[in-house]
Each structure stands twice: as C-alpha cells, then as structure tokens.
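Dear H.,

Thanks for agreeing to be a second pair of eyes. The structure we're designing against is below in token form, covering all 78 positions.
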C-alpha cells in the first residue's frame, strides 16, 4: 500500500475512531491514531486468522483422514 493510501485510510479510520470514542483531536493526531490503529488491528486480525487457519487445517486433516480410513475399510472388506 502506498504512503498516500495509508494516510487516507489512516485519516478515515482515525476520524471514525475519534468520533466513536468522543475524542477531539487535530488532523495530525487523528491520522496518527488511525495509522497506529490499523497496524495494531492488522496484527490482531492476522494472529486470529493464523490460529483459526491452523485449527481449520487440523479439522480438515482429521476429516480427510477419516474419509480415507472409511474408503480403505470399504475396499478391504471381504
């Protein structure tokens, strides 16, 4: 993401956050709050997605192994 886009998104995020939290700040502080919040929020989201991604991978692997065992048992029964 370019620096200009980061500043625009930071300004929008900072503006919304300061309005939700009823905080009066100047433009520079608002942009800084938005950029800082984007960094913190991005790290939290990536962490949560990594954890849920690993769990989803484990669940998928177990289900896949169960299907493979079911097929193996079906083919080896006489």
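And this is the sequence the design step returned. I haven't edited it by hand at all.
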């Amino acid at each position: 993401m370019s620096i200009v886009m980061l500043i625009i998104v930071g300004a929008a995020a900072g503006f919304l956050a300061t309005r939700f939290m009823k905080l009066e700040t100047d433009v520079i502080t608002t942009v800084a709050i938005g950029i800082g919040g984007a960094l913190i929020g991005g790290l939290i989201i990536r962490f949560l997605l990594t954890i849920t991604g690993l769990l989803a991978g484990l669940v998928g692997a177990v289900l896949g192994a169960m299907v493979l065992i079911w097929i193996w048992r079906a083919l080896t029964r006489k």
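Two observations from my side: The two ends are 61 Å apart (CA to CA). Residues 3-76 form one domain.

Warmly,
E.
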